[in-house]
Amino acid sequence: MERGSSPNRLFPLLKKSPIGYVDPIGLLTFLFFDFGWTRAPLIDYLKLRKRKLLLFSIYGIVASFLLGVIYGILGRFSNSPILFNLFYTASKWSFTLSIVSLIPLPPLDGSRIVLAFLPDKSYEWYIKFNFYGILFMLGLLVLWILPMIMHPLVIFITNVTNFIIFGNW
Predict the structure, then answer these.
(1) What is the mean pLDDT of residues 61-66?
(2) Cα separation of 133 and 136, whole Å?
(3) Which of 21, 79, 90, 127 is least surrounded, with the fewest CB atoms within 10 Å of its CB?
């Protein structure tokens, strides 16, 4: 980061508090159905440079992965069964978020990573059809295709979480 710059100068629409990203309905569905969403940060794709877009996207993925490792380590050394279950679940959810975010469908971070490497002509086309990514994902969910695709990832994520917490694969 440049001297004298703050995260808000790099990403002016980034909120200081994570509470601003909480969507009440997405939170409730997450708690009851293990599927939910948050409010996405507002991004002006036409004004944001591709390098900053790439950094912005990678930041969320890396942060989720690191949180998964931290929660796993805390779970490994917790003595309470309640804390163990809490940290195990939080670790698994964080790893799931980091891996699912790599999928190159809007509004996921993987689509922004792809966007950062597209030529200008394709960049503008991709932005126009950005809205349809969420409809496509909801269609995959309703048709039960998304859970079938996610099943091998869930097994992998469970193995990674077990490796961090228990030390075995």
Answers:
(1) 91
(2) 5
(3) 79
Helices (H), 16-79: 24-33, 50-76
69 close to 54: Cβ distance less than 8 angstroms: no
Token pair in block for residue 106: 């809007």
CA distance 122 to 79: 53
- The DSSP H or E segment spanning 125 is helix 120-128
Tell me which DSSP letter residue 20 carries: G
Rounded Cα distance, 166 and 160, in Å = 10
Express each pLDDT in 73-127 by its tens digit.
Answer: 999 999 999 999 999 999 998 898 888 888 888 778 888 888 888 887 887 788 7
pLDDT, one tens digit per residue, over 29-50 is: 777 766 667 777 777 777 777 7
Neighbours of 31 (CB within 10 A): 9
Residue 22: beta bridge partners?
38
106 C-beta neighbours (distance < 10 Å), count: 23
Whole-number Å distance between alpha carbons of 14 and 58: 15
Amino acid identity, residue 107?
P
